[in-house]
Amino acid sequence: MTRIWISTAAAAGAIALLPVAALAQASTDPDRYGWGPHMMGWGGGWFGMIFGPVFMILVLALVIAVTVLLVRWFGGPWQATSSQPPQQPARTPLDILKERFARGEIDKEEFEERRRFLGE
Prior knowledge:
Blueprint: H1 2-25, H2 51-74, H3 93-103, H4 108-119
Helix pairs in contact: 3-4
C-alpha cells in the first residue's frame, strides 16, 4: 500500500509541473524564436562570437607565461654547464715553429729564417 501511494504522489507531482514547463517554453513575442538566431538579444550577428576564441587564446598564453615565470623563479639561477673541458688559448705561429724546432723537424737555420719572416 505504501508503494502505491509513493508512485501516485510522484505521478501527481509530475503532472502538476507540466503547466509550468509549458509556460516556460511559450513565447509571447511572435518575432522571437525559441532557439533561433535571435536568442538572447544577439540580433543574429556572429561578430560578437569572435571574442570567445580570442579570449581563449589570451587566457592560454597568460597561463603559459605565468607557469614559465613561476618555474624560472622557483628553479633558482640558471647556469649553463658544458660537457667539454675549457678551451686552451690558441697557439700562435711562433709557438708552432718553436715546437717543430724542439721536435727536430727543422734545423736552426730554417728556424731563424722562418722566425724572421713571422716577425715582419
